[in-house]
């Protein structure tokens, strides 16, 4: 497979000199220090709604001086939050819960960007892997972050742990395309497109949420102290971000093209890949309760899944009140 394919996967280890550099909201009226938002990954369409709000002055107009901190393969978002380098951070649902229930962090989830988790088991269409039962006797590449969830998926489906061979995922789909492995656990917003458009083979996937383990992803997390001190700004951030994400999805081609040489210039993604990812994430975000919603029934499902993963989650982990307005 050509080298560019290795740069197109969502979690490819990119050289990102900009990771950790804050990008500030222009002309903000806030008298306080900047509200620092830690991204979960390098700059790609996952964060495009925040970039719109910064560039077009939406946050500044409501008095929020937003400083966006790009993530990256070497950066741990919860570490940024705990270390005081950010005021609010995007985390995986599992990482947020582990920080609270295994490490004692005083975290609150105030919004969920992905109402449905993009994690999926991705394969070549010819492999006919349509659900967990089809994984028996197969070899699956899985990143460390997803191991807990994937093993829980197998247990939930009644599949013995030794019935599936799990190997490390090097963030490169070449072994899948070459038939060396049968499937990869990764985000379905980007990898299937890469396989089909760079590897030249039809891809297929099933989502882990659809297989009985629903979870949010890219949850917005802050500490109890920060929430008490900066509640108004965080409420404004959520409210404005709902409008900027809505604007983005009115035509998912507009902002990827506009930001290809600015926000996304280090991503290694082609314009076609940026647009494809932006389109693919829309149905995961725009749930029936609106962007970032923490609806009671969805929170209950997330709690149930976290408990299946061995994390004693309760509703105290979530604070939906900031979205009530």
From TrEMBL:
<dbReference type="InterPro" id="IPR027939">
    <property type="entry name" value="NMT1/THI5"/>
</dbReference>
<dbReference type="Pfam" id="PF09084">
    <property type="entry name" value="NMT1"/>
</dbReference>
<feature type="domain" description="SsuA/THI5-like">
    <location>
        <begin position="45"/>
        <end position="252"/>
    </location>
</feature>
<protein>
    <submittedName>
        <fullName>NMT1/THI5 like domain-containing protein</fullName>
    </submittedName>
</protein>
<dbReference type="InterPro" id="IPR015168">
    <property type="entry name" value="SsuA/THI5"/>
</dbReference>
<dbReference type="GO" id="GO:0009228">
    <property type="term" value="P:thiamine biosynthetic process"/>
</dbReference>
């Amino acid at each position: 497979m050509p080298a560019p394919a290795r740069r197109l996967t969502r979690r490819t280890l990119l050289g990102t000199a900009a990771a950790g550099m804050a990008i500030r909201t222009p002309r903000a009226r806030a008298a306080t220090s900047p509200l620092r938002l830690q991204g979960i990954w390098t700059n790609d369409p996952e964060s495009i709604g925040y970039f719109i709000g910064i560039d077009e002055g939406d946050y500044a107009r409501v008095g929020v001086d937003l400083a966006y901190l790009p993530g990256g393969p070497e950066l741990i978002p919860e570490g940024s939050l705990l270390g005081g380098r950010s005021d609010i951070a995007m985390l995986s649902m599992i990482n947020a819960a582990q920080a609270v229930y295994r490490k004692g962090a005083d975290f609150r989830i105030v919004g969920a960007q992905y109402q449905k988790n993009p994690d999926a088991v991705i394969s070549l269409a010819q492999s006919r892997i349509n659900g967990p039962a089809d994984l028996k006797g197969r070899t699956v590449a899985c990143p460390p972050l997803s191991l807990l969830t994937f093993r829980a998926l197998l247990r939930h489906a009644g599949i013995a742990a030794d019935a599936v061979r799990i190997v490390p995922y090097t963030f490169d789909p070449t072994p899948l395309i070459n038939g060396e492995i049968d499937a990869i656990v990764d985000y379905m917003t980007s990898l299937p497109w890469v396989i089909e458009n760079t590897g030249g083979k039809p891809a297929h996937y099933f989502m882990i949420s659809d297989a009985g383990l629903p979870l949010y992803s890219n949850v917005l997390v802050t500490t109890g102290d920060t929430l008490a001190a900066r509640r108004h700004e965080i409420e404004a951030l959520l409210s404005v971000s709902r409008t900027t994400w809505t604007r983005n999805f009115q035509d998912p081609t507009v902002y990827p093209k506009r930001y290809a040489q600015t926000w996304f210039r280090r991503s290694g993604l082609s314009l076609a890949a940026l647009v494809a990812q932006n389109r693919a994430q829309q149905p995961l975000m725009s749930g029936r309760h609106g962007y970032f919603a923490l609806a009671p029934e969805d929170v209950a499902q997330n709690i149930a899944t976290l408990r299946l993963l061995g994390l004693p989650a309760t509703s105290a982990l979530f604070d939906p009140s900031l979205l009530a307005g």
